């Protein structure tokens, strides 16, 4: 007599492919997943609650630790929200420095994704190549603000430090270098038969589903929705740059890969224009009151982080700290589609799909 | 060879037992030496391919003693065993996986004179014995009482079934040409033309199947790190783990040696370069193969289990059959 039985398998919280402390309880039949339940919260630090007791400037370092792979965009979203509600002007040079820093961060974030994704698929080398280029970016950002991961660079009304001498030129030199390496990546992986077999048609969903699940970023664009907040609602100075939004068609892991790799190229385009346009001199911190008090009211701003739409909602009652602060953390929303995608897939596809969503657990758990 | 036959026919006793033990020592030390430095070489090659240095502290700047230190560490580690594990099988599994890897070494001819057993069906013996290792992996996966290990064990069984057959089918071409299953004769047949030139398709199939047999990237599914963590040996530590590791690298040695013998002409020199000793020729060809295995590991992502089986049954097997057909025609017309 042959009897089969469903097996309950705990994937995580300590598992090499969950990209952090993420737990997935899956019911498997052989290698086929019948049901998957994500369990999150292992990294929950209560950023939003903590923020209620902090002055606005003090909140900034907390945002570094949410999406720790692209801390610059998180810095920006809180500063942008406060600037919007208070109505502050940001000097021109500061805006350019912010954009350069954010786009560098976006490239670094996508590089980490590329490396770890290929590592999930069993290729070990791309990881190290991607980290070489990321190291170059990290070094640039380190020169800018003295930190490698949690930058704490932006301030309400501008940025903390002006770029050191020659820094802009270094960024300028970095652009062709990165383009060259990107070609190398495509030559190495993008045409690889095994890789294509592993990602094509895997984790597919339609436009409607993506919108229903409130996905954003590359997870949304891979289905063909042309939605990038930098284009749709240009914030900062993004309306001054000429760049495209890579859009996929098929909505599978392969389309997401192409979207993200395309985004690196577009970020390089933005960088190229930004380093040309940046004013030679100028203040980097605008006129900001010593103690920032947001007027009574509420504000919601959103920007495009490497993972999708990151939003910041502030409800203020005219005090030094917010009455309520809420971050819309894209990884958290993007993760919601996971149980649906995993149903009926096998164990090997689990890592392909989970990796393809591109989550950062610091952001999922807040 | 005659004294060997006499020895085999002699009644069992202490003297011939000790002779057997002493005779095995050189091969053991050669193989263990190879394993030690193959692991180091693999780490070095991967390191340089991945912008790293590899081991460079223990034993001088080339890390010559790194593996020795690693093995020592494994030996003195606590021998842990899961509480609910099937104890006898758990202990037995590494042995089942490891013993055949050494048994196959007996038939490999390094040169005309350096070999340990020249048996008529050497090739068959090699393939038959090497299949046993999978049993060890399956046992390990089952006995660990770990779900990941079980999946790894199951994968290794599925993989073995899908790959052993194309592997054997690819060999039929060689056997057709050589007219023998004896490895020495197969090498002697390749005095002028190595079989890689006569059997290019067979060589490719055999190489792919051998990679799968060795559980190396892109076919390292039983121990797929990213989904199954370490697969069948996830619960093993210390010297039991070392046994699995050892078996893996001894197989790398054996498989590379077998491919050298079957397709690259064994110890036969390239024509005109006969002044270089046979053993060196064997070593060169063998090292190139080992390097290619390492190179492949640095380059390719891992294939999915269902794709692997599909590839094995739907691509490799028919192509291997075609290869037999072509070989037969070639043989009939030209030889």
Subunit organisation of the chains: heterodimer
Q: How are helices and strands ordered from N to C of chain B?
A: HHHHHHHHHHHHHH
Q: Largest sheet of chain B, described in full?
A: none
- The count of helical stretches of chain B stands at 14
What is the global morphology of chain B?
Answer: globular
Low-confidence parts of chain A, pLDDT < 50 over ≥5 residues? none
Largest sheet descriptor of chain A: 3 strands, antiparallel
Strand-pairing-aware structural class of chain A: alpha+beta
SSE topology string of chain A: EEEHHHHHEEHHHHHHEEEHHHH
Strand content of chain B: under 5%
- Separation, N- and C-terminal Cα atoms of chain A: 50 Å
Percent range of helical residues of chain A: 40-55%
Query: Order of strands in the sheet with the most strands of chain A?
Result: 1-2-3
Q: Might you state the CATH topology name of chain A?
A: Cytochrome-c3 Hydrogenase, chain B
Overall mean pLDDT of chain B: 82
Contiguous uncertain segments of 5+ residues of chain B: none
Number of distinct beta strands of chain A: 8
Pfam family, one (chain A): Complex1_49kDa
Main location (chain A): membrane
EC number (chain A): 7.1.1.-
Subunit structure (chain A): NDH-1 is composed of 14 different subunits. Subunits NuoB, C, D, E, F, and G constitute the peripheral sector of the complex.
Report on the structure:
- The complex is a heterodimer of chains A (366) and B (335).
- Chain A is α+β, with helices and mostly antiparallel strands.
- Helix content of chain A is 48%, strand content 13%.
- In chain A, a hairpin with a 2-residue loop joins strand 6 and strand 7 (308-316).
- By secondary structure, chain B is an all-alpha fold.
- The model of chain B has no long low-confidence stretch (mean pLDDT 82).
- Chain A binds chain B through residues 7, 9, 15-17, 30-31, 118-125, 128-129, 132, 189, 192, 194-195, 197-198, 346-351, and chain B through 46, 49-52, 147-148, 151, 154-155, 217-218, 220-221, 224-229, 297-307.
